[in-house]
Amino acid sequence: MIMVALVSIYILYMLSSSLGMTGIWIALSIYMSLRVFAGFWRIGTGSGPWSFLKDNFARPQ
């Protein structure tokens, strides 16, 4: 999430200086998209608090 924040801050600075408020909204949309991608990536690896997901789907009940 730190990498997502750093990339988003850079994009926010660049777009807001060139496009104004439109750039801010585009940068915030990119930020939220990167957060979704990072969250699903973390869930897919099974690390973090979602390790139970991997265990439940691996064995049928």
UniProtKB/TrEMBL annotation:
The keyword Cell membrane does not apply. One of its GO terms (cellular component) is membrane. It is a multi-pass membrane protein. The chain crosses the membrane at residues 6-32. It is found in: Membrane. Keywords: Membrane, Transmembrane, Transmembrane helix. InterPro entries: DinF-like (IPR044644). PANTHER family: PROTEIN DETOXIFICATION 42 (PTHR42893:SF4), PROTEIN DETOXIFICATION 44, CHLOROPLASTIC-RELATED (PTHR42893). Belongs to the multi antimicrobial extrusion (MATE) (TC 2.A.66.1) family. This is Uncharacterized protein. It comes from Lotus japonicus (Lotus corniculatus var. japonicus).
